[in-house]
Amino acid sequence: MAYELVSIDSERVLTLEQYEALADASPDVEWLANITNAKTRILTAAPIQYAIDLARFMVETTRRFVRFAITRKKTVGGPIEIAAITKHEGFKWVQRKRFFSAE
Question: How far from chain centre, in Å, is Cα 92?
């Protein structure tokens, strides 16, 4: 089922069916709706694990798209490396390719 992002005016009231359908929305649709809505943009914060998962998903999707694109150059590929930078932990590798054995 496809969901579209809508801004909800203060006068709009959801029906029971619309309210129950909100539970079926995927987290990425909900998160994107929050950051694109001017009323909730300042309150938006995602957990670091969600941001890591979203980054991984976006890179994997791009890699798969480029793999099957006929007229585009293969500009994405190889192992995916992901790092997180947080205020408290600083720079931290989450997923990194290995050049040598782990021994």
Answer: 19
In this structure, what token pair is assigned to residue 39? 């009323």
Q: How many domains does the chain have?
A: 2
Domain that holds residue 21: 11-45
Per-residue b or e along 17-41, where b marks 16 or more CB atoms closer than 10 Å to that residue's CB: eeeeeeeeeeeeeebebbeeeeeee
Question: pLDDT tens digits, residue range 68-98?
Answer: 877 777 777 788 899 998 888 899 999 888 7
Helices vs. strands in the chain: H and E counts, helices first: 3, 2
In angstroms, the CA 30 to CA 46 distance is 11
